[in-house]
Write a structure and sequence with these properties.
Number of helices: 12
Oligomer: single chain
Strand content: 15-25%
Shape: elongated
Largest sheet: 8 strands, mixed
Number of strands: 15
Order of helices and strands: HEHEEHEHHHEHEEEHEHEHEEHEHEE
Radius of gyration: 24 Å
Distance between the termini: 69 Å
Length: 481
């Protein structure tokens, strides 16, 4: 297949997304990739068909965490009655899978990453500092090894993302599977220069041996094997089939084996690090994922010239994502914690440096301002804000649930004062749902709940509330500008 035909071939891409925001991610795919995509939804995952030449655009999606190309999907896989037979079937499955086109997509994806790395080397100052990448952000790391996974009840994959939920996966149209017989020979013959690790040196006439690992993501209580069992035996068959070298850490190819009850999806990872790690370089104890922040911002349907405020911004994940994706709005971020204000200032500086060193960037600033303030007494004019988007204290790492019973009503009242009557909106995230429901019930004349999105935040069952500001005026006890 020539390069032009290879680029035009349609493939099925799977993407993990923040649980609860599948519809939001699907809407973004349809909006940005257009009619070329057919989107199907699953709990914590979406699948869509796209031309291989659009891989670069796929990586620019803001609502997805990790990407993989689908090798094959089985909607009703019949596991055998014994452990040995089930694992033997998984081993035999390797030789039957249509590997050719997915591996070509992996190669194209590797070339994209090499070009990106080359640009970064040409602009070394443009890379944001990652010194605090894993410093207390309260999220799971994205490179968990298969060998370290002990909990089979949790379907957490090695990319650090949630397992599929209770919804059933729809049938997925995979890539052309008529060429699987020559997959191994063709790929081994052409993959010589694609070794991402670059440390397997062979002779000039011999292709380097690729390193790989298999990650099993299993959910369901009717399996007679563990995730480690499946990863080990399936990985052994992959090694025998391709003659690759197994390596749990410094791998070139990551093969994904996702098992949810009787549904089995085999894929090849296209991301080494979650795409949500894009804006934040200085983390706090409750830093929000950029993908979750993007989903919240999409809910508010921001319009050009809107004033968007995050009154409890923490390290700034929401306002920085907003200023990046909605530059025609003006964003204001504030917090009462001086340390949080230092972190958001550092994150903004990192973002500005990155923008200045991007080859195609002409922007030298962001439409974002920061203020240290008290959430219960904001220095903003009454009715001057169009949208409020914030992550409220859960009462776990920050504050306490006891304090929330006083804090939440005070916050909602002050938010109603600054929000524009009739058209103002608020998108609020909290895990303390009981306290929030009580506070909202006392503000019925000022706020109307329009939508609730149930989300998973670091293993916590939380909710995102979309509120609409009523026309009712707020009674004020003190003068305001």
């Amino acid at each position: 297949m020539c390069e032009a035909e290879e680029a035009a071939a349609a493939v099925t891409i799977g993407a993990t997304v923040p649980t609860g925001f599948e519809l939001t991610a699907a809407a973004e795919v349809e909006e940005k990739l257009g009619s070329r995509c057919s989107v199907r939804r699953d709990r914590g995952k979406i699948y869509f068909a796209v031309a291989a030449q659009a891989l670069a655009q796929v990586h620019q999606l803001r609502s997805v965490d990790n990407l993989f190309v689908v090798v094959k999907e089985f909607t009703d896989y019949q596991f055998k009655e014994t452990k040995e037979e089930s694992l033997k079937d998984l081993e035999d499955l390797v030789k039957q899978l249509p590997w050719t086109d997915p591996l070509k997509v992996w190669k194209l994806n590797t070339n994209l990453k090499k070009k990106k790395t080359k640009r970064k080397k040409q602009n070394p100052q443009g890379s944001a500092s990652k010194e605090n990448l894993s410093d207390g952000e309260g999220e799971e790391k994205t490179d968990t090894k298969v060998a370290d996974k002990e909990s089979d009840d949790q379907a957490q994959n090695a990319l650090g993302l949630e397992s599929a939920g209770g919804q059933e996966t729809q049938a997925i149209i995979s890539v052309d599977n008529g060429k699987q017989s020559d997959a191994k020979d063709e790929f081994l013959a052409t993959a010589g220069s694609e070794n991402g690790a670059g440390d397997c040196k062979e002779s000039e006439n011999e292709a380097p041996v690729l390193k790989f690992r298999v990650t099993c993501n299993r959910a369901g209580d009717k399996h007679n094997f563990t995730s480690n069992d499946a990863a080990r035996d399936f990985g052994g068959a992959v090694q025998e089939h391709f003659q690759w070298k197994a390596d749990m850490t410094n791998f070139d190819v990551e093969v994904l084996l996702n098992i949810h009850n009787n549904e089995v999806v085999v894929g090849i990872a296209l991301t080494e690090e979650s795409l949500h790690r894009r804006n934040i370089t200085h983390f706090g104890p409750t830093t929000l994922r950029s993908t979750l922040a993007y989903g919240m911002l999409r809910l508010c349907d921001a319009q050009p010239s809107d004033i968007i405020v995050d009154p409890m911004c923490g390290t700034g994940a929401i306002p920085i994502e907003g200023a990046t994706e909605w530059p025609n709005c003006f964003h204001i971020a504030g917090d009462n914690n001086p340390q949080a204000m230092k972190r958001i200032a550092s994150n903004i500086c990192s973002l500005l440096k990155k923008n200045q060193n991007q080859e195609s960037s002409t922007s030298w600033g962001v439409s974002l301002d920061t203020v240290q303030w008290d959430i219960c007494s904001l220095p903003l004019r009454t009715g001057s804000v169009d949208v409020i988007v914030t992550d409220m204290p859960f009462g776990k790492r920050i504050g306490s649930k006891k304090k929330n019973w006083d804090l939440y009503p005070a916050c909602l009242k002050e938010m109603s004062r600054i929000c524009r009557p009739g058209t103002g909106r608020a998108v609020l995230l909290t895990q303390d749902k009981k306290c929030f429901a009580k506070a909202l019930s006392g503000m019925g004349r000022l706020w109307r709940k329009s939508q609730t999105v149930w989300v998973n935040v670091g293993g916590l069952h939380a909710a995102v509330y979309l509120l609409k500001r009523t026309l009712e005026e707020v009674g004020e006890n003190r003068s305001r500008w």
